[in-house]
Write a structure and sequence with these properties.
Blueprint: H1 2-27, H2 29-36, E1 44-46, E2 66-71, H3 79-88, E3 97-99, E4 104-106, E5 125-130, H4 136-156, E6 172-174, H5 175-181, H6 191-202, H7 208-222
Parallel strand pairs: 1-4, 2-5, 2-6, 3-5
Antiparallel strand pairs: 3-4
Helix pairs in contact: 4-7
Length: about 220
Amino acid sequence: MKRLIELIMIGFVVMISMVVADTQVSASAVNNYIASHNITNVSITKQIWGGFPKYKYRHGKGKPEGVVVHETGNSNSTIFDEIAYMKKNYRNAFVHTFIDDDHIINIANTDYLCWGVGYPGNARFVQFEQVQMHSKSSFAHEVENAAYYTAYILNKYNLKPNDAAYDGKGTVWSHNSVAKHLGGSDHTDPVGYYSRTSKKYFHHKYTMKQFYHLVLTNYHNLT
């Protein structure tokens, strides 16, 4: 009887370990792919356009309080299409940087605020847009570029990584978290894009929590 109980307990432990392992794999499928394929970020290209207005953050020039992650919501555009459109329509909205699988293009001076999430977030955060990708490899490369850029901005402005999703207090924000905790917008990006694209190519959703862990990896590599 004692031996039977021991066998049952061993089987239970093995089963729990398998479940945990499967959960870990599915929870980090994109990040694991990036690591196993040695995907690294591209260099930042500065193409600062002089037409954007220059207003200080609420604490002054060069004093952002974090980074907001966006995605364009356009499945048919290229990064160059998006940049050209934004320059024509900056009075409605603009961000600092655009990212895809092969580019990190900074178009507005990050020492000054941009108009991407409304009040009060605009006066607090550096903001960037991701263009929608349409393959497993391109999505992974884009996410790595985005995580690197987020870490780069945190490091540049001496901001410590802190996921804002839980309490609305932190340095790494999705547009969704800004809308939820600060208002000024009802947008939910990049949550849907991450989940939808990752399910299509990796069979598991990708979340902002997982993206934040990728940001941490990049941040530690920079510091």
